[in-house]
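Progress report, Aim 2. The chain analyzed during this reporting quarter is listed below.
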Amino acid sequence: MLKILYFASVREKLGQGSEELALPGGVTDIAGLLGFLAQRGGPWESLATFRNLRYAVNQEMVRLDAPLRPGDEVAFFPPVTGG
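Predicted structure tokens for the chain:
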């Protein structure tokens, strides 16, 4: 299982803050997971085109090619600015 967390405007757009999902067959990295989630249609399609979307696996910032394993925690969030 993957624990997936959605933050800020991503959470608002999708209408949920988290979910647990069995690692889909053939999905080996963040890019594959985004593609899988986008196939749900509707607001999920925006994950594939979300401008400057950030990703973390097990609380470490990663790139699209970061590998995924069962038990990982994946977070999706927009860039943030400080003030």
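The longest strand covers residues 2-6. The mean pLDDT is 93. These observations will guide the mutagenesis work planned for the next reporting period.
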